[in-house]
Amino acid sequence: MSEPAAAVGRPLAGRVAIVTGAARGIGAVVTEHLARDGANVALVGRHPGALESHAALVDERHPDRRSLAVACDVTDETQVEAMVEAVVRAFGGIDILVNTAGGTGPIETPAQDYPAEEFMRILQLNVLGTFLPCKHAIPHLIARGGGRIVNVAGTSGLRGYRNRSGYSSSKWAVRGLTRTLALELGPHDITVNDVCPNVTHGERMNRIVAEKASKSGRTPEQVYADFTAQTALGRFVEEEDIAAAIDFLVSDGARNITGHDIPVDAGWDV
Fold it and tell me: Which of 161, 167, 212, 224 is catalytic?
C-alpha cells in the first residue's frame, strides 16, 4: 500500500477509496468515515442524484480532499470497468475498495417457493456485484504497490438462514471470494477481508421487520425483540459499528490481517 504523508488525525490522507452502494445505509456512513480520515472517495451506486447529494455533503464536512460521484450498476461489467477508469483518471490510482452494494432478496420464503429468477437476481447483485469491482480495481491496487479490499458479507453467511436461501447463499459466496482473493493478492501486499454485520438499524432492516411481521402474524415490536434476544449484548448493530470495523481493516494497523471474516454482530454468532 502506498504510504503518503498523513496529516495528524487523517491517517488516509492522500489515499484513494472506492465505496460501492455509497448513497445510503452502511455505504454512506463508510464514505463519511473514509473522508473524515482524509481519503479521496469515489461514491458509486445506481442513483446519481443521491450520490451527488451525499458527495457534496461529505466535501462540505471534510474539505481539503475530494469526492467523486460515479453512477454505476455493479452487476454490469462494462459500467464497472468505466467507473474504475473514471476514478483513476480523477485521482491517479486506487488504494482502497469497499464493497457495500447489495440486497436482501425475498424473505420468509422457503426454498420450494423461492422464485428461481429472484435467486439469480440476489446472487448477481451480492456476488457478481462484489466480484466485478474487485476484478477491475485489482490491477490498480497492484500498481500502487498494495492496498485494501473490504467486502460486506453477513452473519447469514456464517450459518444457515431459514427461509432466506438466496441471500444466505450469496453471503457464503462473498466469504469464499474474499478468502480466495486474499490468497491471490497477498504477494502484492493487498489485504482482502469481509465484515459480517448482524441485524443493523436502518431503512433496510425496517423493511425486513415489517415484512417478517406481516408474514408471521406478529407485531414489528415482537420481531425486533426476537432479533435482539438472539444476541449476547441484547441489541441491534448500528451502521457506525460497521464503518468503525472497516476503518480498522483499511488502516495500517490491520496490515497483517487478511482472508478473514470480522463479525460485527453484538454476539450473535457465539
Answer: 167
Number of domains into which the chain is organized: 2
Query: What does the pLDDT average to over 40-67?
Result: 97
Torsions phi, psi of 167, nearest 5? -65, -45
Does 167 qualify as catalytic in the annotation? yes
- Confidence check: pLDDT of 1 > 80: no
Instruction: Judge whether 72 lies within some domain.
Output: yes
Q: Which amino acid is at 167?
A: Y
Distance CA 164, CA 119 (A): 10
212 catalytic per annotation: no
Residue 4 has pLDDT above 60, yes or no: no
Whether 44 is covered by a domain: the verdict is yes
Catalytic-role residue among 171, 212, 215, 224: 171
Residues of the domain holding 221: 201-236
- State the amino acid at position 56 in one-letter form: A
pLDDT at 2: 44
Examine the domain organization and report whether 151 and 229 are in the same domain: no
